[in-house]
Write a structure and sequence with these properties.
By secondary structure, this protein is an alpha/beta fold. About 45% of the residues lie in helices and about 15% in strands. The chain binds nicotinamide-adenine-dinucleotide.
Length: about 200
């Protein structure tokens, strides 16, 4: 490829199919819209549906939108999501692991009742879905996984040791999958929004 062949079309996601966990609220909704604006169809698995806003945003870009109500921590969630996205959109090219929770408390009160669900949603669920989708992407020899970390992947912070621990953890998982999957044509990255 010559430098004169460069085109902004290289950034186009036209025809790609993207899963965005928790993609119907907060940052996830912004990722869904950005992917649609870049040309991708969007599949959102989330524990709660919205009022139709996300569908309207994606469809206004001329892209398809599908939703699955699912608890990402359920053991069968990865299989259900891969199957439902493949049925609805015809395949998977991108996974954005965006869904996350942040429970807060004073350090003496922050116990396993807060730690365990945060590890389940913020770390184990992205791994489990990354594993299931990763197998699919490796088989097709292309694709992208983007894990949403945080500034607290680099800092400790206060009131939530599990937030810092799970966000550090997802960066480690990202680095491992980046090394493992690159040889199969699959790119794995993390984004660290500022909090
Ligand atoms: N908002 C910020 O400023 C900020 C900053 C840094 C990092 N982040 C990270 O960005 C991501 C999105 O954050 P946000 O603030 O937009 O969150 P949000 O609370 O607006 O959205 C989270 C989404 O995840 C879904 N979700 C939560 N638990 C789930 C479960 N068990 N199963 C299925 N869906 C579930 C929720 O229904 C919701 O749609 C998170 O990983 C968060 O840690 C956010």
């Amino acid at each position: 490829m010559d430098i004169r062949d460069f085109s902004m079309d290289l950034f186009s996601l036209a025809g790609k199919r993207a899963i965005v966990t928790g993609g119907n609220s907060g940052l996830g909704q912004a990722f869904s819209l950005a992917l649609a604006k870049a040309g991708a169809d969007v599949f959102v698995p989330s524990v709660v549906d919205d009022d139709g806003t996300t569908r309207a945003l994606v469809e206004a870009e001329g892209r398809r939108y599908a939703f699955l109500e699912v608890d990402l921590t359920a053991p069968d969630a990865p299989t259900r999501i891969v199957d439902a996205c493949t049925r609805a959109l015809g395949g998977i090219d991108v996974l954005v692991n965006s869904a996350g929770i942040c429970l807060l408390d004073d350090v003496e009160a922050f116990d396993r009742a807060k730690w365990d669900p945060m590890v389940a949603v913020n770390l184990t669920a992205p791994f489990a879905l990354g594993h299931a989708v990763g197998k699919h992407l490796v088989a097709q020899g292309s694709g992208k996984i983007i894990n949403i970390a945080s500034l607290f992947a680099f800092l400790g912070g206060q009131w939530s040791p599990a937030y810092a621990a799970t966000k550090h953890g997802i960066v480690g998982f990202t680095k491992a999958y980046c090394d493992e999957l690159a040889q199969h044509g699959v790119q794995v990255n993390a984004i660290a929004p500022g909090y």
